[in-house]
Input
Amino acid sequence: MDSRELTSRTEELTARRDRLQRLNNGDRALLPSLACAVLEELARTRLRPGHAATRRSLTALPTPR
Output
C-alpha cells in the first residue's frame, strides 16, 4: 500500500470507529452529527422528553414539498 491508500484506509477506519461509538451511545447513532447536537441542546434546556422525541422525528424526516 502506498501512503495515499494508507491515509484513505485510516480515514475509513476512523469513521467506522466513530459510527460504532455512536451506536454504542443509543438511538441517536444513525442521526447526523448536527441532529445529535440539536438533541443535546434540547436536553440541556431541560425540555420535556416528548418535545425532544418530536424534534428528533422532525429532524430525521425529509421536508414535504
User: Anything to note?
Assistant: The helical segments are 3-24, 33-44, 49-60. The mean pLDDT is 75. Residues 1-27 form one domain.
